[in-house]
Amino acid sequence: RAIFAANATLGLAVDINPTELTVRQSAALEPVAASSIVLAKFGHQEIGPVGRRVVVAPDGETIYAGGSTGILVVDATRLTKAEGFLEGTALAALGLSPDGRTIFALEAGSGRIVVLDAGSGTVLGEVPGEGFDRLLAVVPW
User: Fold this and answer.
1) Which of 49, 39, 62 is nearest to 94 (CA)?
2) pLDDT category, 107, cuts 50, 70, 90?
3) Cα 18 to Cα 23: distance, rounded to the nearest angstrom
4) Whole-angstrom distance, CA of residue 102 vs CA of residue 121
C-alpha cells in the first residue's frame, strides 16, 4: 500500500504511492548525528549515474543491479536478464561513466572499486586504493 524511503544521515523520509509512483508526503527530520562529510563539485564536467545498488544506462536501454552475488544486467525494454557480471562478488554500489561504456563497482567488505567494460563485463582494472565505503560520482578524466 506504500513505499517508504528514509535517510537517517540526512534526516529525510518520503512516502511514495506504489501505483502512481508519486511522492505523497515528505519530511525533513532531525538526523541521528551530524553529517561528517561535505561534498562539493567544481567545474562543469558531465557525471555518470551512480546508485547504491541500481543504475540505468544513459540511453535508458540497460539496467545494472548490484547485490550480494554480482551485477545483474537487465534489458530495460523487455525486462529480461541480458548478462551477469562479477558473479559471486558482493557489491555495495555501482556507477557508470557518462557515456555508459564503463561500470565502476564498489566491492562490499574490501572497499575496492573495480572497473568493467559495460558491454562485455570484462574487468579493465581497479581504482587505486581500497577501503572505500561510498561511490559518489563518476567523472571522466
Assistant:
1) 49
2) very high
3) 9
4) 9
